[in-house]
Amino acid sequence: MSTNEDLIGRADLHDIEAILAIATEEGESNLRAVRDHAPAIFTWDYEKGARPALNKLYEKAKHSQWNGETDLPWDTAVDPMQLVELQRQAFGMTPETRAAKVAGTPFAKWGDKEFDQMGLESNNWMLSQFMHGEQGALICTAKIVETVPWIDAKYYAATQVMDEARHVEVFARYLDTKLDGHYPLNAHLGLLLDDIIADSRWDMTYLGMQIMVEGLALAAFGLMHMTTPEPLLKQLLRYVMSDEARHVAFGVLTLKEYYQELSLAEIRERQEFAFEAAVRMRDRLLQQEVLARMGLDVKEAVKFVMEDEGRQMFQQLLFSKIVPNCKKLGLLDAGDGWLRTRFQELGVIQFEDLTDTSDEYEAFALGPAELSESTIS
Ligand SMILES: [Fe+2]
Ligand SMILES: [Fe+2]
Fold this sequence. Notes:
Layout: H1 4-8, H2 16-21, H3 52-62, H4 80-90, H5 95-102, H6 112-147, H7 151-178, H8 187-198, H9 202-227, H10 231-259, H11 264-284, H12 288-293, H13 298-307, H14 309-317, H15 322-328, H16 338-345, H17 361-364, H18 373-376
Helix pairs in contact: 3-7, 3-10, 4-6, 6-7, 6-8, 6-9, 7-10, 8-9, 8-11, 9-10, 9-11, 11-16
One fe (ii) ion is lined by residues 134, 137, 164, 167, 244.
């Protein structure tokens, strides 16, 4: 059986030095090449609807396309600093509560200027990671079109490829025209995307992307949608979420069927992959690149960030879709319940009985009034 060292490269989940040792290299080229080891599969079984749930999802997707150019109010004026201020108000943060919180930490000597800059950097970082993650989804789903052996799944995945192109487009446009700076791909997210793309087994793409990365994205977009006061970003997230819910459902519906065929040893490999992905995504949320750019002692700052209660709660909430979906797939308790124990260690098991996403996508769907006439017809 694999050890923590095998799976995540360190024995202790919370080893800060090992986490920080994985960092984005400066001066990386404008392109990233990852070798894909999966065979491209043709199928001669063209029977549409042999898998009714996937067929339903495909038909739904055809009627749910929106246009990133014309359906969002791009003429909305966004002041990045005002956005930071409004976010603080939404979270009830005042200079006094902030001062009490950071006493005795590397942030204690900061004034308004530094906190303002950190707020701006943090938004640039977050939206940049969303944009890079969306490109990861674009590439992974194109890979699914090639590698999945079922025609209904190839059809559905083709619609998801279009959705992801639109998502990359709108996040890139928001960053370029409304905020004021990009960040490169976070190294932890990069490791995870590389693993998903490189794996030769077609179902691992679904587990890594549709269940783990998109499950986390759906929760993250939901939290941001609920708390952002900025109308353009709010609507952008609402539209993206309506697609993401379908994508996660695609993962759950496909893997639910496929996992029936697997042996316990094969399921264990899936449990281990889900754990590795969860750790990579948690590590990425520490925003080490922002802390470094702000000139802080990153190790000391990360210690504070990891122990901050508000942050821990936020981080746990991001797993609120992943855990019930893993349970629905049977991954939590298969074998000796290995993944349940690991999710307990990560502090996220409490979400296991929330609604899974296999049909929750209906609740996220856009109404006719939200889709432009040209899109519907
Ligand atoms: Fe997406
Ligand atoms: Fe997606």
